[in-house]
Design a protein that fits this description.
This protein is mostly helical. It has a single domain, classed as MFS general substrate transporter like domains (Growth Hormone, Chain: A). The protein has 18 helices and no strands. It is globular.
Length: about 425
């Protein structure tokens, strides 16, 4: 009798909520979709530029093609995920990204490489947008800011891996090292595809669960959302607030993309830093940035999303201005630290805002629209920066431009009026 009671007690002990397992593989998805497919280019760029004899404008154009593929895909990514389920869309997208990275290494010319970068962007959007929307399905409002902060750390793991890995491959394989680098990153992304296919789940109710930290009011609203007409999707796109937030997100897309794309290129070609040293600094940016979304997502749960956005934009503006205005080591390390501390916080805050305002069911559509406008800023940024560098023989002015746009983002976040729970 006593043994039976003990057995029952053991069975009654709470298990780890599967939402945390899903969150871990959301991180894996973003690691493959963005950390490798997009930010892997930062470390490979200088060697790839030499191998294909590219101008600065062409290096920027390659990244613009990646982001153009991303922008086109986010138009549909949220809606397709809502229809077929995020798990399938995320997994297939990671497979596309993996194939695109391998193809980029195989292609012999700039023209062909544009195709590889384009499909890398397609896979990146299909992996990232539904993954961020999945957070709203598995986490209630009180935990959502923190959860989205953890989710975006996937990009940081990409920086941490590519920072030291790419220089090591380049040292080992010389002029063909940039091609081998793409093959290796593609193989890792293929591994992420398998893991996400096996372990991601679309909704808590598939497993008889409720979202982590879900309140009764949220549960009732979630049940009501399931009965909503498909015409409700139109209400998302007609929201003036959503378009305001999209404009702010554009400022982030434009400013950070210049910095993150040409960081290693600027240090090795203009600041006189060695490839390994620049790679190690990129590694440290990744390490610091891995907690950026976590920190600011958690703080936004306390301070409000808008206040957090203003502070983050100001810090990023200072980072980009310092990088462009001085090549002194102190300015470079200060810039890297400020960017690392804030790097992925804005996507986390935007995703949390979408969940707060539009609810779990419509959050993917809201994130999708914001990401379209955000992606437009990303598409423009690298081509603009490359053209400026070719015209001035330096990327310094491009970084300064990014800093100014980031400060405009801070101003936009300051004047926007969000619902009381999100301010």
């Amino acid at each position: 009798m006593e043994q039976t009671a003990k057995t029952a007690a053991v069975k009654a002990e709470p298990r780890v909520h599967y939402g945390y397992v899903v969150l871990a593989f959301i991180v894996v998805a973003i690691f493959g979709a963005l950390g490798l497919a997009r930010f892997g280019y930062t470390s490979i760029l200088p060697s790839m530029q030499e191998g294909l004899r590219l101008t600065n404008t062409q290096t920027g154009e390659l990244q613009s093609w990646n982001l153009f593929g991303y922008m086109l895909t986010v138009v549909f990514a949220g809606m397709i995920a809502a229809r077929y389920g995020p798990r399938v869309v995320i997994s297939v997208s990671l497979l596309i990204a993996a194939a695109a990275m391998i193809a980029t290494g195989l292609f012999p010319s700039f023209e062909a490489a544009r195709l590889g970068r384009f499909f890398g962007g397609v896979g990146g959007a299909g992996g990232n947008v539904p993954a961020m929307g999945l957070v709203s399905a598995w986490f209630g409002t009180k935990r959502r800011g923190l959860a989205t902060g953890v989710a975006v750390s996937g990009s940081s793991f990409g920086l941490m891996l590519t920072g030291p890995l790419i220089p090591a491959i380049l040292l080992q394989y010389g002029t063909e090292g940039w091609r081998i680098s793409w093959y290796v990153l593609g193989a890792i992304a293929a591994g992420a595809f398998i893991l996400c296919l096996l372990f991601l789940r679309n909704r808590p109710d598939e497993m008889g669960l409720t979202p982590v930290g879900d309140s009764q009011a949220e549960s009732d609203k979630r049940a009501s959302d399931k009965k909503a007409s498909s015409l409700d999707w139109g209400l998302v796109y007609k929201s003036p607030l959503l378009w305001q937030l999209s404009a702010i997100y554009f400022a982030f897309g434009f400013s950070y993309l210049i910095y993150s794309t040409f960081f290693v290129r600027y240090l090795t070609r203009e600041a006189g830093m060695g490839v390994a040293t620049a790679g190690n600094l990129w590694l440290w940016v990744g390490i610091i940035s891995s907690v950026s979304g976590f920190i600011w997502g958690g703080l936004s749960d306390r301070w409000g999303r808008r206040t957090s956005l203003v502070i983050v934009f100001m810090l990023q503006g200072a980072s980009f201005l310092a990088f462009g205005l001085s090549r002194e080591l102190a300015a470079i390390y200060l810039s890297a630290a400020l960017f690392g501390l804030t790097a992925w916080s804005i996507p986390a805050l935007m995703a949390a805002l979408a969940g707060d305002i539009f609810g779990a069911r419509l959050a993917p559509a809201a994130i999708g629209l914001m990401t379209i406008v955000f992606s437009l800023g990303q598409v423009i940024a690298p081509y603009f920066a490359g053209a400026v560098a070719d015209a001035t023989q330096s990327f310094a002015l491009a970084f300064v431009s990014g800093g100014i746009v980031a400060l405009l983002g801070a101003l936009g976040a300051f004047v926007v009026r969000t619902p009381k729970r999100a301010t």
